[in-house]
Write a structure and sequence with these properties.
two-stranded antiparallel sheet; 2 strands; alpha+beta; about 5% strand
Amino acid sequence: MDHVQPRSRGGRTEWLNAVAAHASCNERKGNRTPSEAGMPLLWQPWVPTRAELVIDT
């Protein structure tokens, strides 16, 4: 998980500021926003519905 707005720059751990990221990409982005790092997001973060959080087994 990576923060869109880095925590060191005031970003919070919440749905709209968190995205999935490979460890190497997270490291490369570092303490920058995706635009500053030249790494555009493939999808915008969203708040999932309760149904999206349910895992069917």
